Amino acid sequence: MKKPPIVTIVGRQNVGKSTLYNRLAGKSGRSITEDTPGVTRDVLETRVEREELECPILLRDTPGLDIENLDEMNRSILEVSFAHLQESDLIIHVIDRKDVRDYDFQLLERFRKDPKISTIPILFVANKVDSEKDEIDMEELYRIGITEPVPVSALGKRNIGLVFDKINFMLPNKGRAENIQVDLKLSIVGKPNSGKSSLLNAILGYKRAVVSEIAGTTRDSLNAYFQYKERLAEITDTAGIRKKSRTAESLEFYSYKRTLKAMEEANIVVFLLDATKGVGEYDKKIFAYLEKTGKPVVIVFNKWDLIPDKTDKTLKEFRENVIGRFPAMKNKPMLTASAVTRQRVSQVLDRVWAMHDKTKIRITTGELNRKIKEWLADGRVNQVSKRPLKVKYATQISSLPFHVVFFVNSRELFTPNILSFFKKKFDTDYDLGGIPVRIEIRDNETKK
After folding, report:
1. How far is the C-alpha of 192 from the C-alpha of 201, rounded, in Å?
2. Is 349 exposed, middle or buried (0-12, 13-18, 19+ CB in 10 A)?
3. Are β-strands 391-399 and 6-11 bridged in parallel, bridged antiparallel, or unpaired?
4. Radius of gyration over alpha carbons of the chain, in Å?
5. How far is CA 52 from CA 24, 25, 58, 165, 393, in A?
6. pTM for this entry
7. Residue 374, SS3 per DSSP
8. DSSP H/E element including 77
9. How many CB atoms neighbour CB 172 within 10 A?
10. Within 13 Å of residue 199, how many CA atoms lie on the same side as its CB?
11. Phi first, then psi: what are they for 244, rounded to 5°?
């Protein structure tokens, strides 16, 4: 299956790349924009289908490439960015018309000397052109060899339509894209520095995300496509979830909101924890939120390779310790892995797909009511009830989450313990493997 053409936005820090990305992506836009240089650290990607485009595109937003302090993380940022540029079908080079610098020319020269990038068409966008007078004054751009800049104001939406026209004109192999129908939407969540980006890279088999020991390296949700055993999935690596900022304008606030949205859109969530640290209080809060959303969760303890002196009993003792401290995880799939060494990464994917298949379970109303009668037949449930309870009728109304409605003789009889009994029965008899079960109780007094 061929992907849509890849269009990658590149340029210095703080020239308006992320704002342009959001304008072109429309409702798909997720890039965080802020005046602070270096906000975008990873390569963001989204599929864009708009009437302005002759074919769908995969639009990418790269970090600012004018990095003076080339420490380990910054070298990784440049490496990832240039790898994405080299596989692009079209590059959009954004330059601040009001602040043309030597680095703009240096970057242009680097593109011209790169064997792969030099063969890729480049659309030059002069950003922050807020008036007709600004459109005329392009002398600085002509001086560094840019003869056909497109003057725009990404913030003011000026000439955005012209950018679409140029994309359609300059994009090679238009129309080669097929409509991408993914079988699964997978999201990776967890606290900062649990190894989410490393797991994303291990699953994809290449360096999609910047990985660093500095907590909070991933500031936005990253998504990509991958194929596993002839099925296609879209995977999202979210920003690490930490305590939500109370300041609506803060960068942490927007990262947090993007992460919540990514979880809500996912079919399956991989909840990644650091095996060297176990389950902390905030891990419990993240898990509680996942339970509230009703999303199927696969719990993965990463960095298992760092656990010292392992024996054949280590895994069993580790699980017992986790469940003992946090019983709510008992019925959830729980695996150990190492994203860095790729240990058991394939097992994680196998479990994810197996859980996804279980989300498609449909139980006919007739079978459902027969099962409930079987579960109540021995009378043990009524022995712990105030008076005999009765499920008059039951039906399934959703598979994700697994949601059934009980029409009963009295709502008050269906206490948390009774509901827990039914949930366990659904889980075991239908081998739901940890798929969240919701039971909605209705009686004659329930408001419609």
Report:
1. 16
2. buried
3. unpaired
4. 26
5. 10, 11, 14, 8, 52
6. 0.61
7. helix
8. helix 72-86
9. 10
10. 32
11. -65, 130
Dihedral angle, C-alpha 176, 179, 185, 187, nearest 10 °? 40
Supply 297's token pair: 């969760």
Compute the distance between CA of residue 26 and CA of residue 158 in angstroms, rounded to an integer: 15
CATH of 6-170, one of 3.30.450.20, 3.40.50.300, 1.10.530.10, 3.30.565.10: 3.40.50.300
Domain with CATH 3.40.50.300 in the chain: 6-170, 188-358
User: Which residues have CB under 8 Å from 310's CB, separation 6+?
Assistant: none
Alpha helices in 266-415 (DSSP H): 281-293, 314-325, 345-358, 365-376, 380-383
Q: In the structure, how many helices (H) and strands (E) does the chain have?
A: 14, 15
Domain with CATH 3.30.300.20 in the chain: 365-442
Biggest distance spanned by C-alpha atoms of the chain: 88
Burial class for 355, CB neighbours closer than 10 Å (0-12, 13-18, 19+): buried
Cα 51 to Cα 26, 258, 313, 438: the distances in Å are 11, 26, 59, 40
Q: What is the DSSP letter of 231?
A: E
Q: Please tell me the total number of residues recorded for the chain in this structure.
A: 448
Backbone angles phi, psi at 237, to 5 degrees: -100, 115
Class of domain 365-442: alpha beta
Could you tell me which of 241, 228, 232, 237 has the C-alpha nearest to residue 208? 237
Other Cβ atoms closer than 10 A to 357:
12
- 11 strand-pairing partners: 94
Instruction: For tokens 């008036």, name the residue.
Output: 131
Fold entry, domain 188-358 = Rossmann fold (3.40.50)
First to last CA, the chain: 47
Tens-digit pLDDT profile for the chain (448 aa)?
A: 456 889 999 888 888 888 999 999 886 555 444 443 343 446 788 888 888 988 889 898 887 665 454 445 456 667 777 787 888 899 999 998 888 888 788 888 888 888 888 899 999 998 988 887 777 667 777 777 777 888 899 998 888 988 998 898 888 765 544 556 788 888 888 887 888 888 888 888 765 544 444 444 444 556 777 888 888 888 887 765 555 544 444 434 555 666 677 777 888 999 998 999 888 887 888 888 888 888 899 999 999 999 998 888 888 888 888 888 888 888 888 999 999 999 999 999 999 999 999 888 889 888 999 999 999 988 888 888 778 888 998 998 888 888 899 999 889 999 999 999 999 999 889 988 778 899 999 886 554 4
Count Cα neighbours of 85 within 13 Å in the Cβ-side half-sphere: 29
